[in-house]
């Protein structure tokens, strides 16, 4: 290092210190600007204005409308379930529990859909003027019903004012009806229960009709068959003039036995007369005529049983007793079979009716409709809070979209 004098050395040291100070100043962080001294830019004013117009103002309007204009709504609740009983047999009771639950659940689902249907709205509207009931407030265009609406509009509004919940596992149905007066809410709830009960009764009547229809048809067929069989037997009796061929045969058999005894006695008398009389004794000719008459009667009686002389033209084979007995037995069997079928059909119908009576459905209410004491709708605080939250979310999304598009430029 070269030798420097005193003045030159001092200047060199000062220069080095100055350079080091300049380097330290350059490396030092820049001072943070004072926020109070920062001025809002134009985009900040636009964001604030949009927040006021898009969130604050609508929320304030909603609160004003809810608390100053919206009419009070009263609610009436009712809870019920569709109960089905099937006492078919004690042996099948445990095995049929699952079927019973399934049937009950199916009936409850039918009522659940029925309460929301147009059919129920039309039935209740015939009893209660729903359009008038739902448009009672003088001015409330948001929550009231427009009387110029169609039946479809009324059904849509009905689903807003009648809330129904259904527990599929237990089959419990809970219905909440709303109206602008306590009396109207209670009346609508009672009509829902009444119409639902009527539907259950109709379903039970149809089920009983289906259960007994086949048995009644079988009974009608059995009655007609029995009538025809009895008419055939009556015509046979009228034609043959025989009430009971079996009894008549017994009588004819007794007559033949008597004639045969008389014939035997006549032969005995003839032989005795021939032994004790001369050749021209009139008793002999009288005995012979008596024998001929008895033999003729016997042949006539035998011909009735199909055992007479087939060469006798006076005997008609179609009128002999075997033919008549066969025909009568056939008709009697038809009558007995028809009578047995009739008794079986009657028993089947009685059994079907008893079974249908045991398979009953009815609406079991666990909560009866009651009149509300205070209005619970509209839920002003909840609606106002939800309005503010959703408007804020919508505004935030719009701001994020704006900045994302701005940063891509």
UniProtKB/TrEMBL annotation:
InterPro entries: Bact_polysacc_biosynth/exp. One of its GO terms (cellular component) is plasma membrane. Keywords: Coiled coil, Membrane, Transmembrane, Transmembrane helix. GO terms for molecular function: protein tyrosine kinase activity. The chain crosses the membrane at residues 46-68, 382-405. Residues 212-239 form a coiled coil. The keyword Transmembrane applies. It comes from the Bacteria. PANTHER family: FERRIC ENTEROBACTIN TRANSPORT PROTEIN FEPE (PTHR32309:SF13), TYROSINE-PROTEIN KINASE (PTHR32309). This is Capsule polysaccharide export inner-membrane protein KpsE-1. The gene is kpsE1.
